[in-house]
Protein backbone atom coordinates (compact mmCIF):
# COMPACT_ATOMS: atom_id res chain seq x y z
CA UNK A 1 0.00 0.00 0.00
CA UNK A 2 1.33 3.43 -0.95
CA UNK A 3 1.17 5.80 1.99
CA UNK A 4 1.31 9.56 2.21
CA UNK A 5 4.27 11.34 3.78
CA UNK A 6 5.01 10.93 7.45
CA UNK A 7 4.20 14.43 8.59
CA UNK A 8 6.30 16.08 11.29
CA UNK A 9 4.83 17.87 14.30
CA UNK A 10 3.26 21.26 13.67
CA UNK A 11 5.90 23.92 13.23
CA UNK A 12 4.99 26.77 15.53
CA UNK A 13 7.94 28.92 14.46
CA UNK A 14 6.44 29.50 11.03
CA UNK A 15 2.91 30.25 12.17
CA UNK A 16 1.86 33.47 10.46
CA UNK A 17 -1.54 35.05 11.05
CA UNK A 18 -2.82 36.02 7.63
CA UNK A 19 0.39 37.55 6.32
CA UNK A 20 2.33 36.27 3.34
CA UNK A 21 5.53 34.45 4.23
CA UNK A 22 8.60 34.82 2.08
CA UNK A 23 12.35 34.26 2.52
CA UNK A 24 14.29 36.83 4.50
CA UNK A 25 16.54 37.33 1.49
CA UNK A 26 16.74 36.17 -2.10
CA UNK A 27 19.49 33.73 -3.07
CA UNK A 28 22.62 35.09 -4.75
CA UNK A 29 24.91 32.93 -6.90
CA UNK A 30 26.73 31.49 -3.89
CA UNK A 31 23.48 30.60 -2.12
CA UNK A 32 22.27 28.76 -5.22
CA UNK A 33 25.60 26.91 -5.36
CA UNK A 34 25.49 26.04 -1.66
CA UNK A 35 22.03 24.55 -2.15
CA UNK A 36 23.41 22.26 -4.85
CA UNK A 37 21.70 24.17 -7.67
CA UNK A 38 24.52 26.13 -9.34
CA UNK A 39 23.71 28.72 -11.97
CA UNK A 40 25.87 29.55 -14.98
CA UNK A 41 25.18 33.27 -14.51
CA UNK A 42 27.70 35.35 -12.53
CA UNK A 43 25.16 38.09 -11.80
CA UNK A 44 24.01 38.08 -8.18
CA UNK A 45 21.10 40.35 -9.11
CA UNK A 46 19.91 37.91 -11.77
CA UNK A 47 20.23 35.05 -9.29
CA UNK A 48 18.21 36.90 -6.66
CA UNK A 49 15.46 37.91 -9.06
CA UNK A 50 15.31 34.34 -10.37
CA UNK A 51 14.66 33.16 -6.82
CA UNK A 52 11.99 35.85 -6.39
CA UNK A 53 10.30 34.83 -9.66
CA UNK A 54 10.16 31.16 -8.69
CA UNK A 55 8.90 32.08 -5.24
CA UNK A 56 5.88 33.84 -6.71
CA UNK A 57 5.06 30.76 -8.78
CA UNK A 58 5.45 28.49 -5.75
CA UNK A 59 3.25 30.70 -3.57
CA UNK A 60 0.61 31.18 -6.31
CA UNK A 61 0.56 34.94 -6.07
CA UNK A 62 2.19 37.92 -7.72
CA UNK A 63 4.04 40.26 -5.41
CA UNK A 64 3.27 43.87 -6.43
CA UNK A 65 6.41 45.06 -4.66
CA UNK A 66 8.44 42.98 -7.12
CA UNK A 67 6.36 43.89 -10.16
CA UNK A 68 4.72 40.48 -10.17
CA UNK A 69 6.32 37.32 -11.53
CA UNK A 70 6.44 38.75 -15.05
CA UNK A 71 8.12 41.96 -13.93
CA UNK A 72 10.57 40.05 -11.75
CA UNK A 73 11.52 37.83 -14.66
CA UNK A 74 12.19 40.95 -16.72
CA UNK A 75 14.55 42.07 -13.94
CA UNK A 76 16.41 38.75 -14.23
CA UNK A 77 17.06 39.28 -17.91
CA UNK A 78 17.90 42.94 -17.47
CA UNK A 79 20.61 41.94 -15.00
CA UNK A 80 21.87 39.20 -17.33
CA UNK A 81 20.27 38.86 -20.79
CA UNK A 82 21.98 35.48 -21.20
CA UNK A 83 20.87 33.99 -17.87
CA UNK A 84 19.92 30.50 -18.99
CA UNK A 85 17.34 29.82 -16.29
CA UNK A 86 15.77 33.22 -16.89
CA UNK A 87 15.43 32.36 -20.57
CA UNK A 88 14.03 28.96 -19.64
CA UNK A 89 11.31 30.65 -17.60
CA UNK A 90 10.59 33.09 -20.41
CA UNK A 91 10.27 30.28 -22.94
CA UNK A 92 8.10 28.21 -20.64
CA UNK A 93 5.72 31.15 -20.45
CA UNK A 94 5.58 31.15 -24.24
CA UNK A 95 5.24 27.38 -24.46
CA UNK A 96 2.68 26.79 -21.72
CA UNK A 97 0.37 24.53 -23.66
CA UNK A 98 -2.71 25.52 -21.68
CA UNK A 99 -2.39 29.15 -22.75
CA UNK A 100 -0.47 29.39 -26.03
CA UNK A 101 -2.17 29.64 -29.42
CA UNK A 102 -1.47 27.47 -32.44
CA UNK A 103 -0.03 30.19 -34.74
CA UNK A 104 2.69 30.75 -32.12
CA UNK A 105 4.04 27.20 -32.33
CA UNK A 106 6.62 27.57 -35.14
CA UNK A 107 8.13 30.66 -33.50
CA UNK A 108 8.15 28.95 -30.10
CA UNK A 109 9.95 25.91 -31.48
CA UNK A 110 12.55 28.12 -33.15
CA UNK A 111 13.12 30.02 -29.90
CA UNK A 112 13.44 26.76 -27.95
CA UNK A 113 15.94 25.34 -30.44
CA UNK A 114 17.98 28.55 -30.18
CA UNK A 115 17.93 28.30 -26.38
CA UNK A 116 19.06 24.67 -26.42
CA UNK A 117 21.97 25.55 -28.70
CA UNK A 118 22.96 28.39 -26.39
CA UNK A 119 22.76 26.08 -23.35
CA UNK A 120 25.67 23.96 -24.61
CA UNK A 121 27.84 26.20 -22.42
CA UNK A 122 25.53 25.90 -19.41
CA UNK A 123 25.64 23.29 -16.66
CA UNK A 124 23.93 19.90 -16.82
CA UNK A 125 20.80 20.91 -14.91
CA UNK A 126 20.24 24.02 -17.01
CA UNK A 127 20.80 22.11 -20.24
CA UNK A 128 18.18 19.55 -19.24
CA UNK A 129 15.69 22.33 -18.55
CA UNK A 130 16.33 23.64 -22.06
CA UNK A 131 15.65 20.16 -23.48
CA UNK A 132 12.34 20.12 -21.62
CA UNK A 133 11.46 23.55 -23.04
CA UNK A 134 11.97 22.23 -26.58
CA UNK A 135 9.78 19.21 -25.85
CA UNK A 136 7.05 21.55 -24.59
CA UNK A 137 7.27 23.69 -27.70
CA UNK A 138 6.87 20.56 -29.83
CA UNK A 139 3.79 19.48 -27.88
CA UNK A 140 5.60 16.49 -26.35
CA UNK A 141 4.39 17.10 -22.81
CA UNK A 142 5.08 13.66 -21.36
CA UNK A 143 8.62 13.73 -22.74
CA UNK A 144 9.18 17.13 -21.15
CA UNK A 145 7.89 15.81 -17.83
CA UNK A 146 10.26 12.86 -18.01
CA UNK A 147 13.16 15.32 -18.33
CA UNK A 148 11.96 17.27 -15.29
CA UNK A 149 11.64 14.08 -13.28
CA UNK A 150 15.20 13.15 -14.25
CA UNK A 151 16.31 16.55 -12.97
CA UNK A 152 14.47 15.92 -9.69
CA UNK A 153 16.24 12.60 -9.14
CA UNK A 154 19.58 14.38 -9.00
CA UNK A 155 18.34 17.82 -7.88
CA UNK A 156 15.23 17.19 -5.74
CA UNK A 157 15.16 20.80 -4.55
CA UNK A 158 14.81 22.23 -8.06
CA UNK A 159 11.64 24.29 -7.64
CA UNK A 160 11.06 24.85 -11.35
CA UNK A 161 11.38 21.16 -12.25
CA UNK A 162 9.03 20.27 -9.39
CA UNK A 163 6.38 22.82 -10.41
CA UNK A 164 6.55 21.89 -14.09
CA UNK A 165 6.23 18.16 -13.41
CA UNK A 166 3.38 18.82 -10.97
CA UNK A 167 1.55 20.97 -13.52
CA UNK A 168 1.95 18.34 -16.22
CA UNK A 169 0.46 15.67 -13.98
CA UNK A 170 -2.58 17.87 -13.33
CA UNK A 171 -2.99 18.73 -16.98
CA UNK A 172 -2.81 15.08 -18.02
CA UNK A 173 -4.91 13.60 -15.20
CA UNK A 174 -2.01 11.55 -13.81
CA UNK A 175 -2.90 11.47 -10.14
CA UNK A 176 -0.66 8.58 -9.07
CA UNK A 177 2.42 10.07 -10.69
CA UNK A 178 1.67 13.43 -9.09
CA UNK A 179 1.36 11.87 -5.64
CA UNK A 180 4.55 9.87 -5.99
CA UNK A 181 6.49 12.88 -7.25
CA UNK A 182 5.52 15.10 -4.31
CA UNK A 183 6.13 12.23 -1.87
CA UNK A 184 9.68 11.84 -3.19
CA UNK A 185 10.46 15.54 -2.90
CA UNK A 186 9.12 16.35 0.58
CA UNK A 187 11.85 14.51 2.56
CA UNK A 188 14.48 16.78 0.99
CA UNK A 189 13.03 19.84 2.77
CA UNK A 190 13.27 20.79 6.43
CA UNK A 191 9.80 21.40 7.93
CA UNK A 192 11.15 24.69 9.30
CA UNK A 193 11.77 26.00 5.79
CA UNK A 194 9.25 28.48 4.48
CA UNK A 195 8.89 26.47 1.25
CA UNK A 196 7.77 23.40 3.17
CA UNK A 197 4.23 24.63 3.74
CA UNK A 198 3.70 25.21 0.04
CA UNK A 199 5.05 21.76 -0.79
CA UNK A 200 2.64 20.28 1.75
CA UNK A 201 -0.18 22.08 -0.08
CA UNK A 202 0.84 20.45 -3.36
CA UNK A 203 1.13 17.08 -1.64
CA UNK A 204 -2.30 17.54 -0.06
CA UNK A 205 -3.86 17.94 -3.50
CA UNK A 206 -1.93 14.94 -4.84
CA UNK A 207 -3.15 12.71 -2.02
CA UNK A 208 -6.73 13.92 -2.44
CA UNK A 209 -6.69 13.15 -6.17
CA UNK A 210 -5.68 9.57 -5.24
CA UNK A 211 -8.60 9.26 -2.84
CA UNK A 212 -6.37 9.36 0.26
CA UNK A 213 -8.58 11.88 2.03
CA UNK A 214 -7.46 11.41 5.63
CA UNK A 215 -3.78 11.77 4.71
CA UNK A 216 -4.59 14.69 2.42
CA UNK A 217 -6.49 16.57 5.11
CA UNK A 218 -3.64 16.11 7.59
CA UNK A 219 -1.20 17.60 5.05
CA UNK A 220 -3.56 20.41 4.08
CA UNK A 221 -4.33 21.49 7.62
CA UNK A 222 -0.65 21.54 8.50
CA UNK A 223 0.13 23.58 5.37
CA UNK A 224 -2.48 26.13 6.45
CA UNK A 225 -1.22 26.05 10.02
CA UNK A 226 2.20 27.07 8.73
CA UNK A 227 0.77 29.74 6.45
CA UNK A 228 -2.97 30.54 6.39
CA UNK A 229 -2.49 32.58 3.18
CA UNK A 230 -1.58 29.46 1.19
CA UNK A 231 -4.15 29.69 -1.60
CA UNK A 232 -3.23 26.35 -3.12
CA UNK A 233 -3.61 24.48 0.18
CA UNK A 234 -7.00 26.17 0.64
CA UNK A 235 -7.95 24.90 -2.82
CA UNK A 236 -6.77 21.38 -1.95
CA UNK A 237 -8.88 21.40 1.22
CA UNK A 238 -11.90 22.47 -0.86
CA UNK A 239 -11.34 19.39 -3.01
CA UNK A 240 -11.38 17.18 0.08
CA UNK A 241 -14.71 18.63 1.23
CA UNK A 242 -16.08 18.32 -2.31
CA UNK A 243 -15.13 14.69 -2.79
CA UNK A 244 -16.49 13.70 0.61
CA UNK A 245 -19.76 15.65 0.16
CA UNK A 246 -18.94 17.84 3.17
CA UNK A 247 -20.79 20.69 1.50
CA UNK A 248 -21.80 22.80 4.50
CA UNK A 249 -18.32 22.46 5.97
CA UNK A 250 -16.87 23.51 2.61
CA UNK A 251 -18.97 26.68 2.48
CA UNK A 252 -18.06 27.59 6.04
CA UNK A 253 -14.38 26.93 5.38
CA UNK A 254 -14.24 29.10 2.26
CA UNK A 255 -16.22 31.91 3.85
CA UNK A 256 -14.17 31.99 7.06
CA UNK A 257 -10.81 31.93 5.27
CA UNK A 258 -11.54 34.26 2.33
CA UNK A 259 -9.42 37.13 3.62
CA UNK A 260 -6.43 34.78 3.77
CA UNK A 261 -6.50 33.56 0.16
CA UNK A 262 -8.31 36.23 -1.87
CA UNK A 263 -5.00 37.89 -2.84
CA UNK A 264 -3.53 34.63 -4.19
CA UNK A 265 -4.25 35.86 -7.69
CA UNK A 266 -2.98 32.75 -9.48
CA UNK A 267 -5.60 30.59 -7.77
CA UNK A 268 -8.20 32.89 -6.14
CA UNK A 269 -10.73 32.60 -9.00
CA UNK A 270 -10.55 28.82 -8.68
CA UNK A 271 -11.03 28.96 -4.91
CA UNK A 272 -14.15 31.04 -5.58
CA UNK A 273 -15.22 28.43 -8.14
CA UNK A 274 -15.08 25.77 -5.44
CA UNK A 275 -17.07 27.98 -3.10
CA UNK A 276 -19.73 28.47 -5.79
CA UNK A 277 -19.75 24.74 -6.52
CA UNK A 278 -20.70 23.97 -2.92
CA UNK A 279 -23.72 26.23 -3.38
CA UNK A 280 -24.65 24.48 -6.65
CA UNK A 281 -24.65 21.15 -4.84
CA UNK A 282 -27.07 22.56 -2.27
CA UNK A 283 -29.33 23.89 -5.02
CA UNK A 284 -28.43 27.46 -4.09
CA UNK A 285 -28.00 28.67 -7.66
CA UNK A 286 -28.46 32.39 -7.00
CA UNK A 287 -25.69 32.29 -4.42
CA UNK A 288 -23.44 30.50 -6.91
CA UNK A 289 -24.20 33.03 -9.64
CA UNK A 290 -23.54 35.84 -7.18
CA UNK A 291 -20.02 34.49 -6.67
CA UNK A 292 -19.65 34.24 -10.45
CA UNK A 293 -20.70 37.88 -10.94
CA UNK A 294 -18.84 39.42 -8.02
CA UNK A 295 -15.67 37.34 -7.88
CA UNK A 296 -14.92 34.86 -10.67
CA UNK A 297 -15.74 36.95 -13.73
CA UNK A 298 -14.03 40.15 -12.50
CA UNK A 299 -10.84 38.19 -11.79
CA UNK A 300 -11.08 36.53 -15.21
CA UNK A 301 -11.37 39.93 -16.88
CA UNK A 302 -8.26 41.08 -15.09
CA UNK A 303 -6.17 37.91 -15.45
CA UNK A 304 -7.33 36.76 -18.91
CA UNK A 305 -5.94 33.26 -18.39
CA UNK A 306 -7.42 30.10 -19.82
CA UNK A 307 -7.56 28.79 -16.24
CA UNK A 308 -9.97 31.57 -15.28
CA UNK A 309 -11.98 31.04 -18.49
CA UNK A 310 -12.32 27.36 -17.58
CA UNK A 311 -13.86 28.26 -14.23
CA UNK A 312 -16.41 30.57 -15.86
CA UNK A 313 -17.46 27.91 -18.37
CA UNK A 314 -17.54 25.07 -15.85
CA UNK A 315 -19.77 26.84 -13.33
CA UNK A 316 -22.34 28.08 -15.83
CA UNK A 317 -22.44 24.70 -17.59
CA UNK A 318 -23.21 22.81 -14.38
CA UNK A 319 -25.94 25.22 -13.40
CA UNK A 320 -27.58 24.86 -16.82
CA UNK A 321 -27.24 21.07 -16.79
CA UNK A 322 -29.40 21.11 -13.69
CA UNK A 323 -32.11 22.98 -15.58
CA UNK A 324 -31.44 26.54 -14.46
CA UNK A 325 -31.04 29.71 -16.49
CA UNK A 326 -27.84 31.73 -16.24
CA UNK A 327 -29.27 34.70 -18.14
CA UNK A 328 -26.99 36.43 -20.62
CA UNK A 329 -23.76 35.49 -18.83
CA UNK A 330 -22.53 33.18 -21.59
CA UNK A 331 -21.93 36.08 -23.98
CA UNK A 332 -18.77 37.39 -22.32
CA UNK A 333 -17.46 33.89 -21.64
CA UNK A 334 -17.87 33.00 -25.31
CA UNK A 335 -16.09 36.21 -26.27
CA UNK A 336 -13.17 35.30 -24.00
CA UNK A 337 -12.72 31.90 -25.65
CA UNK A 338 -13.40 32.97 -29.25
CA UNK A 339 -9.80 33.83 -30.29
CA UNK A 340 -8.79 30.26 -29.37
CA UNK A 341 -11.45 28.34 -31.29
CA UNK A 342 -8.86 26.92 -33.71
CA UNK A 343 -6.04 26.22 -31.25
CA UNK A 344 -6.54 22.61 -30.09
CA UNK A 345 -3.47 22.81 -27.87
CA UNK A 346 -4.98 21.40 -24.69
CA UNK A 347 -8.06 19.16 -24.62
CA UNK A 348 -9.33 20.51 -21.30
CA UNK A 349 -9.49 23.97 -22.89
CA UNK A 350 -11.32 22.57 -25.91
CA UNK A 351 -14.07 21.07 -23.76
CA UNK A 352 -14.62 24.32 -21.86
CA UNK A 353 -14.52 26.31 -25.08
CA UNK A 354 -17.30 24.16 -26.47
CA UNK A 355 -19.35 24.77 -23.31
CA UNK A 356 -19.14 28.51 -23.98
CA UNK A 357 -19.96 28.29 -27.69
CA UNK A 358 -22.97 26.09 -26.93
CA UNK A 359 -24.07 28.18 -23.96
CA UNK A 360 -24.00 31.39 -25.99
CA UNK A 361 -25.62 29.54 -28.91
CA UNK A 362 -22.88 30.87 -31.17
CA UNK A 363 -23.36 28.53 -34.12
CA UNK A 364 -20.63 30.20 -36.16
CA UNK A 365 -17.97 29.65 -33.49
CA UNK A 366 -19.22 26.15 -32.84
CA UNK A 367 -18.90 25.25 -36.51
CA UNK A 368 -15.49 26.91 -36.73
CA UNK A 369 -14.38 24.83 -33.74
CA UNK A 370 -15.66 21.57 -35.22
CA UNK A 371 -14.10 22.15 -38.64
CA UNK A 372 -10.75 23.21 -37.20
CA UNK A 373 -10.65 20.17 -34.91
CA UNK A 374 -11.34 17.89 -37.87
CA UNK A 375 -8.53 19.62 -39.73
CA UNK A 376 -6.23 19.22 -36.71
CA UNK A 377 -6.99 15.51 -36.39
CA UNK A 378 -6.34 14.98 -40.08
CA UNK A 379 -3.19 17.12 -40.16
CA UNK A 380 0.48 16.67 -39.35
CA UNK A 381 0.31 17.26 -35.58
CA UNK A 382 0.25 13.58 -34.61
CA UNK A 383 3.54 13.91 -32.69
CA UNK A 384 1.82 16.13 -30.12
CA UNK A 385 0.54 14.38 -27.01
CA UNK A 386 -2.73 16.24 -27.34
CA UNK A 387 -3.43 14.76 -30.77
CA UNK A 388 -4.21 11.24 -29.55
CA UNK A 389 -6.16 12.61 -26.56
CA UNK A 390 -8.19 14.77 -28.91
CA UNK A 391 -8.86 11.86 -31.26
CA UNK A 392 -9.76 9.34 -28.56
CA UNK A 393 -11.58 11.52 -26.03
CA UNK A 394 -12.04 15.21 -26.81
CA UNK A 395 -13.70 14.78 -30.18
CA UNK A 396 -16.37 12.34 -28.93
CA UNK A 397 -16.85 14.34 -25.72
CA UNK A 398 -17.48 17.61 -27.56
CA UNK A 399 -19.77 15.81 -30.03
CA UNK A 400 -21.74 14.44 -27.08
CA UNK A 401 -22.05 17.98 -25.72
CA UNK A 402 -23.42 19.16 -29.08
CA UNK A 403 -25.90 16.28 -29.19
CA UNK A 404 -27.17 17.16 -25.71
CA UNK A 405 -27.58 20.82 -26.69
CA UNK A 406 -29.64 19.75 -29.71
CA UNK A 407 -31.88 17.53 -27.57
CA UNK A 408 -30.43 14.31 -29.01
CA UNK A 409 -30.09 12.69 -25.61
CA UNK A 410 -29.87 9.06 -26.72
CA UNK A 411 -27.14 10.01 -29.20
CA UNK A 412 -25.29 11.85 -26.43
CA UNK A 413 -25.30 8.71 -24.26
CA UNK A 414 -24.20 6.47 -27.11
CA UNK A 415 -21.24 8.75 -27.87
CA UNK A 416 -20.14 9.40 -24.29
CA UNK A 417 -20.68 6.06 -22.58
CA UNK A 418 -17.89 4.17 -24.45
CA UNK A 419 -15.25 6.78 -23.53
CA UNK A 420 -16.34 7.42 -19.94
CA UNK A 421 -13.23 5.76 -18.43
CA UNK A 422 -10.92 7.75 -20.67
CA UNK A 423 -12.14 11.22 -19.69
CA UNK A 424 -9.29 11.60 -17.17
CA UNK A 425 -6.94 12.03 -20.14
CA UNK A 426 -8.25 15.53 -20.89
CA UNK A 427 -6.58 16.68 -17.65
CA UNK A 428 -7.80 18.66 -14.69
CA UNK A 429 -8.96 17.32 -11.34
CA UNK A 430 -11.68 14.82 -10.51
CA UNK A 431 -13.93 17.69 -9.44
CA UNK A 432 -13.33 19.53 -12.71
CA UNK A 433 -14.04 16.45 -14.83
CA UNK A 434 -17.33 15.73 -13.07
CA UNK A 435 -19.09 17.68 -15.81
CA UNK A 436 -18.67 14.64 -18.08
CA UNK A 437 -20.35 12.24 -15.65
CA UNK A 438 -23.08 14.82 -15.03
CA UNK A 439 -23.60 15.13 -18.78
CA UNK A 440 -23.90 11.35 -19.16
CA UNK A 441 -26.34 11.02 -16.26
CA UNK A 442 -28.57 13.92 -17.39
CA UNK A 443 -28.60 12.67 -20.98
CA UNK A 444 -29.46 9.16 -19.83
CA UNK A 445 -32.34 10.46 -17.71
CA UNK A 446 -33.70 12.47 -20.66
CA UNK A 447 -33.22 9.71 -23.26
CA UNK A 448 -36.29 8.02 -24.75
CA UNK A 449 -34.62 4.62 -24.37
CA UNK A 450 -35.40 2.57 -21.27
CA UNK A 451 -31.91 1.10 -21.17
CA UNK A 452 -30.47 4.60 -20.93
CA UNK A 453 -32.81 5.59 -18.11
CA UNK A 454 -31.74 2.45 -16.26
CA UNK A 455 -28.13 3.43 -16.90
CA UNK A 456 -28.69 6.77 -15.16
CA UNK A 457 -29.37 4.85 -11.93
CA UNK A 458 -26.36 2.59 -12.16
CA UNK A 459 -23.50 4.69 -13.50
CA UNK A 460 -20.59 3.82 -11.22
CA UNK A 461 -19.79 7.38 -10.28
CA UNK A 462 -16.65 6.73 -8.27
CA UNK A 463 -15.12 4.50 -10.91
CA UNK A 464 -15.94 7.14 -13.49
CA UNK A 465 -13.80 9.51 -11.46
CA UNK A 466 -10.97 7.19 -10.55
CA UNK A 467 -10.59 5.54 -13.93
TrEMBL record:
UniProt entry keywords in alphabetical sequence: Repeat, TPR repeat
Among InterPro entries, the record links this protein to: TPR-like_helical_dom_sf, TTC38
> What domain of life?
Eukaryota
The keyword Transport is annotated on this UniProt entry: no
UniProt lists the family membership as follows: Belongs to the TTC38 family.
Q: What is this protein called?
A: Tetratricopeptide repeat protein 38
Q: Which species does the entry assign this protein to?
A: Capitella teleta
